[in-house]
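hi! just following up on the protien thing from before. the input was this:
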Amino acid sequence: MLVGVPKEIKTQEYRVGLTPGSVRELVNHGHQVMVQQNAGLEIGLLDADYEAAGAEIAGAAEDIFARAEMIVKVKEPQPEECAMLRPGQVLFTYLHLAPDPEQVPGCAARTCPDGRHCIHYYTDHPAACCDCKEGLD
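and the predicted 3d structure came back as:
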């Protein structure tokens, strides 16, 4: 599986979806990982750390969303990220949509339509998520 890790774009969110150690584990188990350039810079994780763990460094989030089979994020996708999600793509992230209710219909529609895999965890707004909680094959 090709796993993509975009840089978080939510205001004051500097964490990154995977650490270099997590990337190494995925790669050692036969997966490929793409990490957006400078995704971990604000928390002291350099592109070189990710490359040493086996990740490919991608220049832009668009590249990751276009190619990755699974997107791993820390926070809920922002509207511009929701627009890049595509059919068949897995989104693994924390959804805290209660403070952002206008995003609920669009995010849920893009991440959980019929036949798609969805792996997410959430608080405060269970209606924001659909019933598909399937695991990875």
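The two ends are 10 Å apart (CA to CA).
Helices lie at 20-28, 47-52, 61-67, 79-82, 104-111.
cheers
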